Queue: 2 jobs
Job 1
Amino acid sequence: MALKGLDIFKLSPKKNCKECGSPTCMAFSMKVAQGAVSIDACPYFSEDAKAAMSEATAPPMKTIKVGAGEQEMTLGGETVLFRHEKTFVNKTRYAVDICSCMDDATIDAKVAELKHVDYERIGERMYVEMIDVEFDPASGADRYAEVVKKVAGEGRVLILDCQDVDAAKAALEVCKETKPILNGANAQNYKEMNDLATAAGVVLGVHGADENELYDTLAALEKLGNKNLVFNACTSSVKAAFASAVQFRKAAIKDSNRTCGYPSIVNVSKLAKGDSHMQAALLSLFTVKYGSIVVAEKIGYAEALPLYGLRQNVFTDPQKPMKVEPGIYPINGGDENSICLTTVDFALTYFVVSGELERSGVPCNLIINDAGGLSVLTSWAAGKFSSSSIAKFFQEQDVEGKIKCRKLCIPGKVAVLKGELEAKMPGWEIIVAPREAVQLVKFLKDMQ
Amino acid sequence: MPFTAKSGKFSASINTLTMGTGEKAIVLGGENVFPFYTFDAPIANAPKVGIEITDGGLEAEPDCVKKYYEGCTTVADMAKKAATFEGVDFLSLHLEGGDPNGENKPTEDLIKIVKEVADAVDLPIVISGCKNVEKDAEIFAKASEVLDGRNAVMLAAKEENYKNVGASAGLAYKQVVGAESADDINLAKQLNVLLTQLGVDAKSIVMNVGTAAAGYGYEYVVSTMDRIKAAALQQGDATLQMPIITPVATETWGIKESVATEEDMPEWGDQEARGIDMEVETAAADLASGSNAVILKHPESVATIAKMIKALI
């Protein structure tokens, strides 16, 4: 059970020395209880008290680091089951699987295909972050190491999907510096795999035929002192995979069962082999419900566009609105002679408005103001979307130097700004656009 | 030591609601656990999948959907064909042509299509409005009349027209009343309360609590549904225990990921695959968050989502 601030305060040194950065021991204890600071920030807590506390105050789900250098990323560390309770902190990562049974040409093609998806969406790089390399016993350990070596330099985190100890050892030799996940421990081999993973300093992935076996193996590895783990959702059926992913997350966060508190890997490639639309559905399902890594056979633009958008939405902080970069966005081939429309930088506003503008087919320039990421009426009420802020933004961006057209449409909800804008921006014709984005298509077409 | 999970079964449950009549009737809701949490308690009524056609007929469909309706000349033909696709539980007739800002088709013309479609199929029917509140009130009143006895769903009453829609669909003709609100648990609750105060039976209300395509403000959809299901089940809030129906197709087939042709966006590749995956991924997220029914357009999407539901229940 999580400790309350007062419980921590009782154990605290009560010196109010401020060395931890908090004004009093009471304030510090409260912060520790909320998980805002670590107990280690206080130099005076007795070791016994700390040990008792760190067990009780440790986050319910481990934060696990994989990859090295620029590819380093964190998994897990979630503290809630639903995003509205606080926020989800570490987004789901996606992997495409290849196999040592494939020939070099197939592997090259698959790698090229997964690398093809690489784009930016609202300031976030969208790409396939991981490659899952499956071990094929028939082609042996040497071939596996060869394939692993081949893809290790592709700038993606590797998942060594291999339950054969010798093959795993050979593969680790050629890629351990990249900090892959050794996804190979099971009820039989976990001791050997544990030695390999700890020697190489990599995260160990745990398999189990069912939830009980999985749980027991995780517990056995914890007993050996290894808490640098991830677990695999069961692959016997979609239902079993969903049950294990959800139940382990629930047990960790709601019931403080730390043995369940590890990031998950869900292999939808195994759950729906050859059925790309089904895999798309499952990629989405396990993004919403508790997959830390989801492995698929293929992630092209068709799968990626909705998926990465969904992930960006689900993992956004509910307390912080999503913003787009302020600036001039030409739409439908808009140029310096095309009509201008302006609105705020709230991501949802941008997407809805730009979508409708695209649908209209009319070339135009969408000018996104810096309005603190708030919606039209909210930012207007907060004084962040006013005639002065718009006029100032136009100057800063040198809109007049870049665009010759002097027609500017403003959102219907802030029609009241028309007069002030005409006064502050001489030479511009200010036009009041409709109140709702869906009316924009008709509005623009009628104007032509 | 085996893994023992605490049960997440609740004492409250989602209302059960029947759509349609006779052999093809379907039941939504009834579960006392979160979506697909069959490990906590069995879910008797799996979520359902509807297929959408419009009053615009074949012409209004995206190119990649047209081939599935080859040979159909009327909307009723399409309805018959749609009923044969794998995984279809119900039919949604979207009367988008009624929109005064669009084609502005007269209500009589639309109702004629409703009648023809109803005669052509025995599936449960959803009538989706044109989004204009005045016109929808008119359409739903007439549609409720011609569909008398079919136990159809009128999608949907909104805050602005709930009195008219509630009175005609709910009170006069005992159809199922859809209650539409935009991504806000309080608005959803308020509309349910208003409708029941009007005399509409709470057990014949189905909610559309808001919808978006994946990537387009979808966080509001997830959180609204998460919170509604938590209120309905954990807190036993009877004013939020109505099942949820989510129109997916109307959102996903209009955005650029589905609309842009391969010539426009060569690097994005096959347009049909993009359209299907956008629809499928959005629907899967809706169902995982709490939808008891989703409405899709592409037959391949319908088959995929039906298969996913079957695998999870």
Job 2
Amino acid sequence: MARITTVVCVTVIATESLSKRFPRVTALDRLSVDIGPGVTGLVGANGAGKSTLIKILLGLSPATEGRAEVLGLDVATKGGAIRERVGYMPEHDCLPPDVSATEFVVHMARMSGLPPTAARERTADTLRHVGLYEERYRPIGGYSTGMKQRVKLAQALVHDPKLVFLDEPTNGLDPVGRDEMLGLIRRIHTEFGISVLVTSHLLGELERTCDHVVVIDGGKLLRSSSTTDFTQTTTTLAIEVTDSDTHPDGTRAVRDALHARGVETENEGAGLPGAGHILLLTAQGEETYDLVRDVVADLGLGLVRMEQRRHHISEVFTSSAEHSGDEQRKEAVRHGG
Amino acid sequence: MAVERPLQPLTSPAGDQTRIHDIGYRGYDGPRLGRAYARRSLYSQSLRGAYGLGRSAKSKVLPMLLFAVMCVPAAIMVAVAVATKAHELPVAYTRYAIMLQAVISLYVAAQAPQAVSRDLRFKTVPLYFSRPIETADYVRAKFASLASAIFILTAAPLLVMYVGALLSKLGFAHQTKEFAEGLVSVALLSLLFAGIGLVIAAVTPRRGFGIAAVIAVMVISYGAVSTLQAIANVQNHTSAIPWIGLFSPITLIDGVQSAFLGATARNPGAVDPSAGQGVVYVLVVLALIAGSYGLLIRRYKKVGL
């Protein structure tokens, strides 16, 4: 059951030529960005200024110049009110090993101002929503990395914030844990109605999870747009077909038939085991779908799948990074993607 | 820290209702009690923690043992006083804490790192400061909770003695006055020891180092001061004895109470400080308490997030 949120202010986070200079480093350089409700990815290489930005947005570190608002509250003067409505999940370990998840999250709920009974109820609810059940009564010291990440997430959500900052939530997780965490992040918005600002240096993750991506580099805004903008310009279709007696290699037959009609295809994951069973082609419009359907039907094959593959943000990001002319940083980010 | 209790199965007419139904996410529209409430919660949680309450059984052992060690001699004294029908308790209220200072130091050494090192070591501190609570709230809650814990440790035996004295009908007015003086003395001691202990413990995230450092500061300073005082006494420089006493926590408290709270100095030669020296003692104690608070604030401004 999705909670109906009435969004009063359309911008959740707004910064205006926000700068943060340390004696030797400029962490943020005249950053102006508006972030709306939903899941927003904040991408940048290590040291790009992500953590500094979160610290300023929580009202914990004054900006050198410029201003920022979170949920319509000025970070310079309303830090306390912001922190009451915002949750924060740090990147590093932050859990004492000798207490149980329940005890820890109840304590953190009370630190957010929840009365004792509400703190216990919200803790039980939140731990269940992040996927911790019986184990929540055991000391955290015995948890796996994935479970610890869930506890960290639970303490950020326990006071039902309007917005959460998640700093590298998938760090240290295996691929399955990573997928689960990304699914959970998506649910935080769709089911819980809480806006999310999630940082990562891995672009591929954010493509699947975020509505909007903000790319910063060297404290400067590189790009801010919705994920659909990033990837909608061209659509790639992935096709998989069955084999039949007349066409022992169905994939090949479809490829040849498509080539005969002037449609270029490529194999997915060429060179990898199991490659060659999925064909990728560029959809020009509605007619491409019809064409594929007709070709497969004419050959008497079964269409196992025909799905849209979005382009990876990393491709888009790489091309915009090229404009910045900073080869080293681009390289660092591309490794992340 | 409050512990969530599993729901008791309700006896419902529908019978077996043990299945959990996922009713989806529910928001929270109830009250948010803000900074002062969070500070109070942190205070009570830390105070309970200082006696191992709400923590593992293992962490209850030492504080409870030390608490018992503090109280048992008082109980014995009372028993002896009652049995022998003495006209006075064998030990004055103000002397009791000085006598058992090693136990108090041990308690501070064990519990000060417990109060602050854990949050530093496991990097829990940023979680506090990403909430409405601020540096000063955190420091005040921790300072107040450790000071209260030490006060409980030091005032409980005085209470035992006072109750015992009243039961054996030693003059009420006289006993009450001395008991009150004793309480003022241990209150000062609690604040001073809590401040020193926390400042030392907050420097290191390693609990072991914290314990060792607190013991070292308490024991070495007292040992050095006593030795110098003894030398001064032997060489007949008795006027120097109160001045030397300014350099260790326990002799500071001894100086304050022998100047103003009717106690006799416990230093070699039993030299009571003059009124002027007494004022210096009080000022040094207050400066140390305020200074340790200031240092803690500075320390936590740095480690937050």
